[in-house]
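During the second year of the project, the team shifted from modelling isolated chains to modelling whole assemblies. The rationale, set out in the original proposal, was that interfaces cannot be judged from single-chain predictions alone. As a representative example for this report, we include one of the complexes processed in the last quarter. Its constituent sequences, exactly as entered into the pipeline, are reproduced here:
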Amino acid sequence: MKITSLLTAFGLVSLIMQTPALGKTPAELNDLQIAHVAYVADNIDIKYAHLALALSDNQAIREFAQTMIRDHTAVNDQALALLKKLGAQPQDNLLSQTLQQNSVGLIDEMSKLRGAAFDKRYAENELAYHKAVNKLVEFSFIPNIENAEVKALFKAGLAIFQVHEGHANMMVKSLR
Amino acid sequence: MIDKVSTRDAKKNTAAMILAAGLGLALANAATAADVSAKTHIIEISKFKFTPNSLQVRPGDTIKWVNRDIVPHTATAKDKSWDSGTIVNGGSTRLAIKQDLRFSYYCRFHPKMLGQFEIVVQE
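Output from the structure prediction step:
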């Protein structure tokens, strides 16, 4: 169903099918693996934002990027504090690694762009990225998280990232 | 114009206010009617909303915004004539109401978050 299109968005389908030994679907990850994916996803968006601050002169893009750094850092701080309270460590996994690998390619692609071309690509990527991650969090992660406090944090995080998605959508439209 | 108060500072201020209350009864008795009627209005920031989203205030009143969200927010006049600065999770900020304040505001970090207050002049 929709999960398939999500995996496609992350370039994960072929990877999972080719590596059955590692091939857990997002819905099968445990809480600590899910926490790791979320932490990595937050940090990837922070990296995109730093790239935008380095390359863009567009005021709206720069303000959005600063908000991404501020908000994703705040969410990650809360997540780390919760894991510390629970005495747990996030667990690296195939999905985290794939997200990380894909982001390297995107950063490489975007870093070659300048001016309006960069702004448009950055805004479109932010919209697509938040859409994909939000669906992953809403339909795969939240229903499967077992710990109540971790689930509550993910619900709060989803509300934040849905606002980001709306903001990114507004930005994309303004750049057309 | 904006008086930023962290939670820790707020505790210190409460202790100072209790001390002042013990020492300053004579001052309290001398307070004017206007001072007595001045109110502090609390606006909670939660789930990317200002609640209440709209309220009536009088010159001399104070508005206090309290941020319950994980992420930082601001309360910023639409015409930029006043700005709370960053209000972090659990933090708060106060604004003393003056008659000529602009009353429509938003969060600079999340521009779809809007709020307003109506300034009612005392008779």
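The helical segments of chain A are 2-9, 13-18, 31-55, 59-86, 94-110, 115-141, 148-175. Residues 1-9, 11-23 of chain A have pLDDT under 50 and may be disordered.
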